[in-house]
Every structure is written in C-alpha cells, then in structure tokens.
Amino acid sequence: MYRALAPVFLWFAFAAVSSAQVPFSGNAFVGYSFNNTSFSEATSSANLNGWAASLDANVLPWGLGLVADFDGHYGPADFVAPGTICTHDMARAKLCSTLNANAHVFDALFGPRIAASFHDGKYQFFPVTEFGLTNLNTDRAGSGTAFSVAVGTGFDARISRVVAWRVEGDFVSNRLFGQYVGSLRISTGIVLRFRSH
Q1: CA atoms within 13 A on the CB side of 141
Q2: How many domains does the chain have?
Q3: What is the pLDDT of residues 108-117, one digit of tens each?
Q4: What is the CATH number of the domain that holds 50?
C-alpha cells in the first residue's frame, strides 16, 4: 500500500517545487463516477457505481501539467476466479464457469495532462494519459492488484471564477486474475480552480 502511495507524495513534492519557480494553475475535482468493467473470460460486464477525485497542476504556461487521479467503484459482478479451468464447446468456444461477487475497485493513477482553454477560459478541454495501480477486492472471488494504463479526455465548463463543472471519460486496461480487464469510466462533478499568483 505504501508503495502505491509513493507517487502521490512525489507528485505533491514536484508541484511544490515547481510552484516556487513559475506561476501555475490547478484544479481539485470530486464527483460521481460510473464504471463498466469487462473481463475477457467472463460472459457479461459489470456496471459499478462510485466516486472519483483528482488533483492537477499546470506547471508550464502552455497548459502542460500533472494529474493525480483516484476513484472507487462498488457493486456485484461475475468473475472467473483464479484457478478456474475453462472448457470448450463443440464449436471450440471457451466456456468458463463464473461466480457472482460483490466487488470494490480502487484506482490510483498519475500522468501528464494537456489543457486547452476556449472563450476566455470559460471552457477547458484536456486529453490525459495516466499510469498506476488498480486494486480489486471481492467477497467471493479473491483480490488482486495490477498495473493499469488509462487514456481519456475531459471537459470543464466554468460556473464562476473558482468553480467549474466537469465531465470526463477514459478507458482503463490491465490484467487481473490472469485475464485482460477493460473498464470504461465516466465521471462528473464539481471542480475548484486555484492559482499560485
């Protein structure tokens, strides 16, 4: 767990050093998040609900910055548990028995972000690529942690000088329980904007 949190402290340290050298702007986001997760060996996907939160800092004047992104999603899902032996039908299609379990998925992701503002900063568009860890806990199918890659984009609409509303989506991929896992995340919520100067 401590190793998983180490990038968080590195990110804050880098942001603190950078802010002492150049002016920067940043955002703190918190909101609702929906996660549709598909396991390559399972016959159905899982729809999970939860929360998302992130901190980002634009440390360079052209909008290049860093983002630390966290989320938690909860709900029932069908799993092919570790050690399950799959069979094949007459058409050679793989058949894997699954079990239903309550799941808790937690992501801790970090990476670069490029932000572009429009209409005097009223709207902000940002593509992002992130890397980090995904932890999956279930009550019946075990648990696991894997390296993850996320690619996505987001959009902020300014409400006031310091408040905006965000909608963002990305695709997170990893390998858990010995199988490929792909998750579509869609989040929305409040953004607080801040500046060092």
Answers
A1: 24
A2: 1
A3: 999 998 888 8
A4: 2.40.160.20
